[in-house]
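User: I'm new to structure prediction. If I give you an amino acid sequence, what do you actually give back? Let's try with this one:
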Amino acid sequence: GVCAHLTRADYLTSTHRGHGHTLAKGADMRRMMSELFGKATGFNGGKGGSMHIADFSVGMLGANGVVAAGLPIAVGAAHAQKLQRRDAITACFFGDGGTNRGPFLEALNWARVFALPVLFVCEDNRWSATTASAPMVAGDGAAARARALGIAALQVDGNDVLAVHAAAGDLIAQVRSGAGPRLLHAVTYRV
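Assistant: Good question. You get back a string of structure tokens that encode the predicted 3D arrangement of the chain. For your 191 residues, that looks like this:
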């Protein structure tokens, strides 16, 4: 739903579950599978494996096994895009567990202060690894936290790809127009 709006020039960062993002960004499935099986023909010579998929040729800056670690990487990439006056944005995927980590607040703050071209996408499955998120997350979640920093945010049903597509399209258009960072909070309401 999100990656359909991205161009080859746009950047993307992901989580340890970045396989779908990598393919949706346009990466070659054979090279990705080679990476997963540790083969030299993989994107990273078989050394990155499942949690560190990256394909710079399509703007996929990498998946990351560390919770919330893609957020500051995305902000750094978006800042570079702005400084270089590139006509591109960065999309940053992260899970709801990442909202309780320092990089979440730091990344959103930096992106807002410098009006960076970044779309933050919280894939909220209501679980932080093996713990339900609700008892661990104060407040109303990622969208509310973004709004508290002055970042426009939308919340959608993460299982409804058409709703995600529509919301992402609106937010990405705003980011491309120079309006600064935006956040899409895709919540899994049903299983």
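You can read the tokens as a compact description of the fold. Here is one thing that stands out. The chain is about 35% helix and 20% strand.
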